[in-house]
Amino acid sequence: MAIDPRTPGADYLSFWRERHVCTLTTLRPDGTPHVVPVGVTYDPEAGVARVISSKSSKKVSNILAGGADGGAAAVCQFAGRLWASLEGRARIRTEPEAIADAERRYAERYGRTPSPNPNRVLIEITLHKALGSKSLHKSSPSGGTSQR
Asked: Is 32 helix (H, G, I), strand (E, B) or coil?
C-alpha cells in the first residue's frame, strides 16, 4: 500500500526535508522516460511537489506536450538504502508569485538561493501517490508498506 501524499508520516516527511539530489521523470511524446537530476520541494498540505526549471528545457516540453492536462511525472530521491518517490500529474506554471514561492522553498531546503533566471518556470506536480522504503512508513498514518 502506498503512503497518502497528503498525510505522510513524520519519518517520510523528514526524509523529504533533508538535502538530497532528486530525479524527475517525465515522458517524452513517444512514451519513453526522460530522467534528470533536479531539486524538489514537497508540500503535503497542498498535495504538490515543485521543481523550478528553465522554460526551454526538455522536461518542460515533455510536460507541455501533454496538453492542458499536463503530463505524468515522478520525483525520487535516495540516501543509502532509503528511497522515496512521489507520483502525479505535472503542469507548468508561469505566474511570478508561484515561481517566487517555489524559489523560496528551494532555498529553504537546499540552503542556497537559485541563480536569477528570467526564463524560469515552475513544474508543479499534483500528487496522487507516495512510495518509499519500509522504514519510512513506520510513522505513516496510512500504515503503508514499501512498493518496489
From this structure: coil
- In this prediction, residue 141 carries a pLDDT of 56
d(CA 116, CA 137): 37
CA 76 to chain CA centroid, nearest Å: 7
Task: Look at residues 110, 140, 126, 144 and name the one whose alpha carbon lies nearest to residue 74.
Answer: 126
Cα atoms found within 13 Å of the Cα of residue 39, Cβ hemisphere only: 20
Chain-centroid distance, C-alpha 34? 14
pTM, two decimals, is: 0.91
The predicted structure's pLDDT at residue 140: 52
Helices and strands (DSSP H and E) totals, the chain: 3, 7
CA–CA distance, 10 with 66 (Å, rounded to integer): 34
**Amino acid letter for position 136:** L
pLDDT in tens, 96-123: 999 999 999 999 999 999 999 999 999 9
Cα–Cα nearest to 17, from 2, 47, 39: 39
Compute the distance between CA of residue 77 and CA of residue 83 in angstroms, rounded to an integer: 6
Given a cut of 50, the residues of the chain with pLDDT beneath it are 143-148
